[in-house]
Automatic annotation (TrEMBL):
Annotated region described as Disordered, given as residue ranges: 1-65
GO biological process, any: SCF-dependent proteasomal ubiquitin-dependent protein catabolic process
Residue ranges annotated for the F-box domain, each copy included: 96-143
GO CC annotation, single: SCF ubiquitin ligase complex
Identification of the protein by name: F-box and leucine rich repeat protein 18
Residue spans of biased composition, Low complexity class: 38-48
Biological source species: Cairina moschata (Muscovy duck)
Amino acid sequence: MAAAPRSRWRREAASPFPRSRLKMAARGGGGVARRGSRVMAAPEEPSGGRAGGEPGREAAGLSGGRCGGGTAAATAVMFRCGEELVSGESEEESNGVNLMEFSDEILLHILSYVPCTDLVLNVRKTCRKLATLCLDKSLTHTVLLQKDYKVNKDKVKQLMRDIGKEIYQLNMAGCYWLPSSTIDHVIRCKNLVKLNLSGCHITSLRLSKMLSALQHLRSLAIDVNPGFDASQLSSECKATLSRVSELKQTLYTPSYGVVPCCTSLEKLLLYFEILDRSREGFMLSGQLMVGESNVPHYQNLRVFYARLAPGYVNQEVVRLYLAVLSDRTPENLHAFLISAPGSFAETGATKNLLDSMARNVRLDALQLPKAWINGSGLLQHLKFNNPFYFSFSRCTLSGGHLIQRVINGGKDLKSLTSLNLSGCVHCLAPESLFRKAEDDIDSSILESLVVSCCNLRHLNLSAAHHHSSESIGNHLCQLLSRLKHLLSLALPVCSITDVAANVEKPPTQPNAAPQTFGKKVRVGIQTYPRNLTDQANQKIESSVFWTLMGSLRFLETLEIIGSSFSSAMPRNEPAIRNSLPPCVRAQSVGDSEVAAISQLTYLQSLTLAQLPNIITGSGLVSIGLQCQHLRTLSLANLGMMGKVVYMSALLDMLKHCKCLRDLRLEQPYFSAGAQFFQALSHCSSLQRLCIVSRSGTLQSDAVMSFMASCLEVVMCHMFMGESLTVCRNLQQSIVRSFQADRPALNVVIFPLLHEDLTEVIRDVPMRHLDEITLFKSRVAEEPPNLWW
């Protein structure tokens, strides 16, 4: 691994808060205070980004000067010479301040939040000063197009023609809508050092031609699709690959890709997305193509990461990549991470690899399949240097082993910034042999964890029953409130319950089905409080969860997920028709707990799933009003399953979410009608919408009106209970009406319980499928800043 990325990982643990961001006009809702002609910086706020996601200026990437996305027209108006600071203000209100009176440093910072295509193709044409500033090296050195859904082939061509020689880092990840011929224009970027083409269409010949011209390239990310042929790579291309030290490769077919050509690899990231069956229904084999080299060069490897999608073929292929590592473990290896769902059995070769690692290397990051850790003494023998990331997801690791073997008996682990214990049901108990998953946790283990890992910024405790005892001061929420540097947190619903409150309430019958049947809520009258004061009065603010939310001032990502929740849309299987009932301890979690989340001023991403006691959804309104930076919202199975009891509150909430970009709703019997889409139209920044609803209905006219009013929407996925004919007609209508103006438009409208659902899902671009369509916990899913 190169020194620069490693230092970036270290920097995340070096200070309690990341660098301050001077927002100014770059984000809606403030950032610049004016006093006469002076510019005052906004208060310090964190910029840690989404857990495990791609880092950048903001969590969702460089996305525009304002929360609305920074369109070309709006940007040009904002920077037009002689205009006031805020469009539409009178001269008295703006005190006559002109953007052009600001220093170059301030203007460059403002411009850094504007998409590069807008800067080069539009903003620089407004006046001479901006013409110079827009071509400043600080703005053209790194070009991020991965979230610029309005970019097209012609814009890329013009951009490369104008500033190609000034670009050193180019990120086009997920630009699935661009034709493969667009890649030809990258050749103009002769000085490229980093290039990310994940999710882009590229053939072996085009890749060869492009890489032959990029002699300075050191970091590369590509997809390997069916038909890839390494024998078509020219000698000049292989020479470039021999100098590449960082490679990210997404495999859609069994292949080594370009790995054998990369003889200087220090960081290797592999994403296995190979399906077990072809479209024609034939079983695929994990054997590699005939003639491919089977000798990847790992001698300089520092970081090895592999993420497997479900499927046997993916496991077969990754074993071929690991075979070379088992023969000779790189001496400088310091991060070894394999993320594999389900069962991934250990073999003789992998055992030899782990034994060699235990003898020869000291690790800083570790993630292994659960079968490789469960029941083995591996952790006792592995040596760690200054670890920054651990993932023991779905392992049967007990709290005793966690403290003794990983945290060294509670010794100082200030270097650890990210910890994933999702699905690790016994990780907060002293031993797991005779323990039931629902038994109370041992608070002393959690306390040791909190004290030792005091700089944690990303913590995932979801998919387990973490029940606190009645001991005063030892509740899980009270202990976690000491982690003042947390940026992202995932918890099971039952873990945030006040123990005293549960004791006072009558016990819930274990055989009851609270999510299926319940007393109907009166329709037509708003039952939630109309202002925050009333809501605060209704909530006893001494509750442990309310206190936790108040103490985590800089939290950006929060997930509260039921321990037994499973999405109706698994990856490669038919839709799930029945869901498990929520944990008994979770029965009291409802509107007041949701209202507590509104204390998180800087919240950017929120996931709530399987909260059974949602009655009116009043807490959602508080979040909409208070959390003005919210960009990603995912709600699933809230309240009773037979009725969407929180619909009225959701509609009110959406009217305040001006920065919301991604919305995912999963709820049976959801009615996506005129009222819903009218409220959703207030979310002017919305880009992606996904609705999953068994027996849900939709109104085609309302969908079309919504798409016409929300010009930024580029993804519309709806899996409902409508007929196949209704779904196809609506999908075709949307594509015909809006595809021309929105090149990145991706529309999938399909019956949720249809037998061909898996075939439809396989055509969804990986960016949307992985980030929003499929439900999963994303906190600490990957090490922070794993890829740029």
